[in-house]
Amino acid sequence: MLRAAALLTAAVPSRAEERRSSRLARLLPDENGRELLLDLTDQVMRIREPGCAARRLHSLTRSGVPASLGVQDRLGLMALGALAPGAPAVAQRLVSWRVDKDTSGVILPADDPEFSRYLARRGAEGFRLNVNILGEAILGDAEAQDRARRVEQMIRRPDVDYVSVKISAVCANLDVLAWEHSLARIEAQLATLYRAARGATPHTFVNLDMEEYRDLELSVEGFMRTLDRDEFHGLSAGIVLQAYVPDSHAALERL
Question: Residue 126, by phi and psi: left (phi above 0), alpha (psi -120 to 50) or beta?
């Protein structure tokens, strides 16, 4: 009873969380609002050159923005879009600041000392954390290797003992039609991560996340083939199966 009461009390949203929820409740049901949100994140924020990002922001907001954003956000975004071409670096910093502000309760910085302090605080509170490195879609082998390197660094941290990763985050352009070639690449990446997990102190649990349905069979087969190697006997690792996907039942039986 006491624990349940404490959990319910802690779950009461703050005013900032209520405001954020209200904004999303207005924005997401609106098709124009969703499209603008996707355009801002998939286009403006992914452009590293401030001038190009500013011109794209100006183009997206030139004809106005959806009313579902709310008065303050709508006026602010329109003003920023109008001024962006004249001050691209400032506009880019303001967009990043606003996104960071709205996601601060959901997405954490991966850089120290902020990340180390967060891990220490949650550990002291008795929580075990599942760390998942976020980032943009992997488009090529160089980006895949860089992401795999970052995941491996996280695995080797002494203050991290649980990491989740998707095969599409460490292998670029997987293709179920190139079955054996794709599996060989998956095995190579997973083997590197599992070796790091086995050698970490304490041992790190690596959880293979599921994502798109088309990657289900590749994920399961790559997971099984890699862990079937003699070097990984006795290693604990996990894989996610999505219960709402009918094919997951057969995959569970195979596992």
Answer: left
Q: Is residue 161 a contact partner of residue 155, using CB atoms and an 8 Å limit?
A: no
Strand 205-208's sheet: what is its strand order? Answer: 131-132, 162-165, 205-208, 237-239
State how far the alpha carbon of 1 is from the alpha carbons of 7, 8, 12, 115, 127, in Å: 10, 11, 17, 33, 20
183-220 CB burial, b ≥16 within 10 A, e <16: bebbbebbbbbbebbbebeeebbbebbbeeeebbbbbb
Which run of H or E residues covers position 165?
A: strand 162-165
Amino acid at 233: H
Tally Cβ neighbours within 10 Å of residue 240.
14
> 123: which residues sit within 8 A by CB, 6+ positions away?
129, 159
User: How far is residue 141's CA from residue 27's CA, in Å, rounded to a whole number?
Assistant: 36
**How far is residue 142's CA from residue 199's CA, in Å, rounded to a whole number?**
25
Instruction: Give the tens place of pLDDT for each residue, 155-212.
Output: 999 999 999 998 888 888 888 888 899 999 999 999 999 999 999 988 899 999 887 7
Is residue 30 within 8 Å of residue 66, measured between CB atoms? Answer: yes
Q: Exposed, middle or buried: residue 171 (CB in 10 Å: 0-12, 13-18, 19+)? A: buried
Q: Which residues touch 185 (CB under 8 Å, ≥6 apart)?
A: 171, 174
pLDDT, tens only, 121-150: 988 988 888 998 876 666 688 888 888 899
Tell me if 87 sits within 8 A of 79, measured CB to CB. no
